[in-house]
Amino acid sequence: MSSSAIQRHPFHLVDPSPWPIFSSLCALTTTTGAVLWMHGYENGGFVFSLGFAGILYAMIVWWRDVVKEATYEGHHTHAVQTGLRWGMILFIVSEIMFFFAFFWAFFHSSVSPAIDIGGIWPPKGIEVLSPWEVPLLNTLILLLSGASVTWAHHGILCGEKKQIVYSLIVTVILAAIFTGLQGLEYVEAPFSISDGVYGCTFFLATGFHGFHVLIGTIFLTVCLFRQLAGHFTPSHHFGFEAAAWYWHFVDVVWLFLFVSIYWWGGQ
């Protein structure tokens, strides 16, 4: 090997990959199909489903390649892991801004209710959910799942493989229970997303949080299988670390949702 071919830096120059352009085309297909579907065009739902399936496939194979580069090819050096950590931090910051918009809409309507909704909050005719039933139980479940994720992180740092597996299984089970209870709450809610500004802000904020819980559950499930495959070590476990950060973010957002929308907004 010539001296010019020797890598003299700790950064990872990725190989050419088909997945970025493939993902972009699938995203375009998905959005186009969604618009056609919502406007009643024939086969719009099929186009949407085709694009969405392509996105799911791209996510699987693209992350498979990233795991291979990190675990088996050794490309994720300390410098690369530092960059990935900053990337995850910025992603979570963008998610904070995303939820900030929903909280802004909620407080804009609830702090100074418009005449159109009777000048009161909750609006007249809306029967709100009690915060001390399913919402409180879900709060305890998410807090417990945050503790079990921390337990798993401690297990990785200490090299306790069984503890990691047990704690991740507990976390995934708690996440599934949370999702099931939230779905039950939606089914039994005395109002819908069509019931004015209250229903809209409630279901958008809690619904998108539920979607993030689902993504986090998949994230942690993948970490569980990676742990069973022996991918994580005390010095090389950014994949789990990113999942743990994401899950703690989901926990914190739920606490704000519980206090503001369920408790304060339901008074």
CATH architecture of the largest domain: Up-down Bundle
Helicity level, as a percent range?
over 70%
Task: Please name the CATH topology of the largest domain.
Answer: Four Helix Bundle (Hemerythrin (Met), subunit A)
- What ranges have pLDDT less than 50 throughout 5 or more consecutive residues? none
Give the N-terminus to C-terminus distance in angstroms. Answer: 72 Å
Q: Please identify the structural class as seen in this structure.
A: mainly alpha
Number of strands: 0
Please indicate the percent range of residues in DSSP E strands (runs of 2 or more).
under 5%
Keywords: Membrane, Mitochondrion, Translocase, Transmembrane, Transmembrane helix
Protein name: Cytochrome c oxidase subunit 3
Membrane topology: Multi-pass membrane protein
GO biological process, one term: mitochondrial electron transport, cytochrome c to oxygen
Explain this structure:
Its main location: membrane. GO terms for molecular function: cytochrome-c oxidase activity. Pfam families: COX3 (PF00510). It is found in: Membrane. It is a multi-pass membrane protein. The chain has 267 residues and is mainly α. It has 2 domains: 11-75, Helix Hairpins; 77-263, Four Helix Bundle (Hemerythrin (Met), subunit A) (Up-down Bundle), CATH 1.20.120. The chain is built from 7 helices and no strands. Helix 1 (19-38) runs antiparallel to helix 2 (44-72). The longest helix is centred in the middle third of the chain and has 34 residues, at 78-111. It is globular, with a radius of gyration of 22 Å. The protein starts with 18 loop residues before the first helix and ends with a helix.
